[in-house]
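[Protein data]
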Amino acid sequence: MAIDLRNPDPSYVSFWRERHMCTLTTIRPNGTPHVVAVGVTYDPEGGGKGMARVITNKHSRKVANVLAAGPEGARVAVCQVDAGRWATLEGRAVIRTEPDAVADAVARYAERYGRVPTPNPDRVVIEITLTRAMGRA
């Protein structure tokens, strides 16, 4: 079921605020998918059509996959499932290293997941400008 990025249903937004583990799918340079469990935050107003963020280590495979896609960013998807409810966000991902961007993403993560992650000087943000949303919440 398609979701209007400019006006998502409140139940969809609420589902993304509940504590759920998610998956991030990136594409490796050889064209195969790389799927990994992550925490994701969703900002329906960010970037005009919405933004999703994943905090991670700069040395991770997912970061390498995003960087390999070039300056325009990588096509990615994040997804979460809870029984019959599901939600997927798709978009273009870039890597953000600026301390303010990382701190903002960490604060959003702490709010959604109820814990502040351990400090990590190698932390970066995978910032996803959304192009599509789907789900049944």
